[in-house]
Amino acid sequence: MHGPHYGEITEWDKAAAHRWDSIGYPRAALILEAQEYILKFLRGVVDLLLEDIDISLPGAAEKWNQVTAAAKKEAVEDHLWLLQTQPSYMRRAIRDLGSATVYEGVNRQSMFCMIATELVNELNVYIVWQNILEECENVQNQHNRFRDSIHPGERLPKRYNQALGALELMLVNQMHHRAKHLAAFIPQRPGFRHLWHTESQVSGQFSVRRIAGFPVTEGFYKDPLDWCLMQLLGDPDGLRRFDQAMLFEFLNEHLANSSSAEKARLDQALYDKLSDLAALYELLTAVRLHRPLSTNRDVDDVKRTEQRKGWRYLDAGAGDSMTSADRLPLGRLLQHFDSLSVPSGKQDRVWIGQSERSRSALSAFWAKVRQDHEKWLRGLQLSTGDIQTDLEALSADSRPEHLAAVEAERASILARIENAGPDPTNGSTQTQWGSEEPSDITIPIRSKVKQKSRPDKVPESVQVQRNEIATATDQVPSTSVLDSKVSPNQCSHLPQKKA
Questions:
Q1: Mean pLDDT per segment of 10 residues, for the chain of length 499 residues?
Q2: Where is this region: Disordered (predicted)?
Q3: What pLDDT shows up at residue 320?
Q4: Cα–Cα dist 26/28, whole Å
């Protein structure tokens, strides 16, 4: 079922069958039929993607590369870039993270310190995906080098075997780490807070315990969403746990058939972390489906033989890059940014000033993050190249192309202001509206006289109220309003005011 003799009929060999180098015909027929179905589906997808592309043109290959270039690393990189360069995106992230239960009983300064910690963790997520990509590229390089030496029933070439083992170990460790992070993160989210009790401690940490109700094992019937998330946590190789592929499929099916309120329990922050976990599991499954299988490796063995960035960090003792002393100034900078006015309304000079203050405060926060991260990296005695690689990911707001785009936007707004004439915000008062010439517009007068539908005599209490209203309205310039009939259905989409 693999290698240069793929698909050929061979003699039965018990040892080869136990190694899965060959399989019985009934199972092979099922596998071949499944492969045929999958390949037809993928061919159809490619045909649809290329439907409007002329592959004879030189630019077609480049367009195809752009279509297929999406990957998890790029998605995380885009997220980190937007956090640094777009104040509105950063405010949304602060709002999403600030909805956690643990922030309800703490002051705003402590809340912003903890949110800053979570935002800095986005850098760590990006670095992890960078390291995983480097491991995948190493596996590909070793496969290209030794592919002619890979044969059924034989051990993998040493370097290729080590590359696969190192990638598998990194993926397993990251799944352990993400599962622990999710276990602490889920009880904080608004959609699950009713199932957990969070209590702050003197040390600044939080203790979380599940509220007595129904056991997790009964959640499959009483709260399927919570049950599924709880099953996704823990050891990825545990013998008594459900397969994660089944759990993610269960999650998709449950959400597809749930109400909008049930779907809303998974907020964006939780979706992002589940997406990371699903991508890690998919990669790990792909490595473990490789035949022949690679040898399991431990951390000490990998650190002795591998010198790529992820293992250099681990060998240097890299841990949490943020200390308690770092959190306070970062929290203050983040709180200052969040307190500034949000640019809104017409893009005038006031809007420009608000935008510049927001961008300046946002850059001050990330400048402090860069400073602290560089200090931490130098303390690990890492190479200048490794330090520059990390700092580059934290320098999106200071890159020349971004600064040029911001300046171009500012110049465009100023040009529109100049072309529009005097700025109303410069202190001058407009005393006339419209043209001095008489208008030719006339308002038609209805010929039909409306019949009275109320008595001629008005009660005294009502007449007093009318006099008060008339006195108040004398202070407001009167305007002519065209009488038009609008049905209730036409107004159903308009926002209703409440007292």
A1: 80 82 87 93 88 60 48 86 95 88 74 89 90 93 91 87 95 92 88 83 69 80 93 85 91 93 92 91 91 90 92 77 76 94 87 94 95 89 89 92 93 89 51 42 42 46 44 39 36 38
A2: 418-499
A3: 62
A4: 5
Q: Which two tokens stand for residue 116?
A: 């800053």
Q: Is 38 exposed, middle or buried (0-12, 13-18, 19+ CB in 10 A)?
A: exposed
Structural tokens at position 413: 């707004």
Q: Helix 108-146 crosses helix 268-288 at what angle (to 10 degrees)?
A: 20
**pLDDT for the residue numbered 323:** 66
C-alpha to C-alpha distance for 320 and 326, rounded to whole angstroms? 11
Give CA–CA dist 152/159, Å, rounded.
17
**Residue located via tokens 């044969």:** 151
Rounded CA separation 135/166 (Å): 8
- CA dist list (Å): 218 to 179, 223, 225, 335: 21, 8, 12, 42
83 CB-near residues (< 8 Å, 6+ apart): 89, 90, 93, 119, 122
If DSSP codes are grouped into helix, strand and coil, which group holds residue 197? strand
Nearest to 232 by CA among 193, 270, 286: 270
pLDDT at 55: 59
Residue 100 identity (one-letter amino acid): A
Which residues neighbour 121 within 8 Å (Cβ) at sequence distance 6 or greater? none
At 324 the pLDDT is: 67
196, containing H or E segment: strand 196-200
The predicted pLDDT at position 78 comes to 92
Count of C-beta atoms within a 10 Å radius of residue 63? 16
Distance CA 107, CA 98 (A): 12
Q: What is the CA radius of gyration of the chain?
A: 32
